[in-house]
Amino acid sequence: MNHPFKREKICEGVYFSSVTDPKFKHNRITANIVTDLDKNQVADNAIVPFLLRKGCRTCPDFTKLNQKLCDLYGASLSCDISKFGGYQALDLSIYGIDDRFTIGGEQMIASCTKLLSEILLDPNVVDGVFGETDLELERQQLIDT
Questions:
Q1: How many CB atoms lie under 10 A from the CB of residue 6?
Q2: CA–CA separation, 100 vs 62, rounded Å?
Q3: What pLDDT, in 10s, does the model give residues 62-94?
Q4: Closest by alpha carbon to 108, among 28, 5, 15?
Q5: Fewest CB within 10 angstroms: 1, 44, 73, 92, which?
Q6: Distance between CA 65 and CA 123 in Å, rounded?
Q7: Strand ranges (DSSP E) for the chain?
Q8: Mean pLDDT of the 24-49 span
Q9: Rounded distance between C-alpha atoms, residue 17 and residue 81, angstroms
Q10: What is the pLDDT of residues 105-127, one digit of tens each?
Q11: Rounded CA gap, 142 and 47, in Å?
Q12: How far is the C-alpha of 111 from the C-alpha of 59, rounded, in Å?
């Protein structure tokens, strides 16, 4: 069994890693942001992936984001927060069908990567801050969890 693993340094502290296995029909693309575990920031950081999951500038609400995911053959978006050692990891993932299985030859890997990039790099913020309603909802969800 040959499962090629590739890791490339993009710039200082930023890496691209991939594992290719043709037996799978879907791809998972994940962005991981690893920060030092700081007791003064841990709760604020924990909310970030859940706020990002709510959309981006091109898909600013749940309806538009959900429609975009449906257009991507039912791709799904997920996020998580975890701790390991002295670090906190914020994860944002998109899971979509492989290009080999699209009906019309659509480039789903590129489209899913583009959407994930938009969510991560062009989030739905106004004047650099997340909406107060979304922030309060996610804050309460974190407390409840």
A1: 9
A2: 28
A3: 899 999 999 999 999 999 999 999 999 999 999
A4: 28
A5: 1
A6: 12
A7: 5-11, 14-19, 26-36, 76-84, 87-97
A8: 93
A9: 19
A10: 999 999 999 999 999 999 999 99
A11: 7
A12: 14
Residue found by looking up tokens 């975890």 in the block: 82
Structure tokens of 86? 């002295």
Angle, vertex CA 61, rays to CA 58 and CA 66, nearest 5: 85
Is-contact 19 89, C-beta < 8 A?
Answer: no
- Write the DSSP symbol of residue 122: S
What is the token pair recorded at 94? Answer: 């998109």
**CA 145 to chain centroid:** 20
Amino acid at position 23, single letter: K
Q: Extract the tokens encoding 58.
A: 């091109």
* CA dist 45 → 7, 82, 89 (Å): 26, 10, 9
Between helix 42-52 and helix 132-144 the angle, nearest 10°, is 120
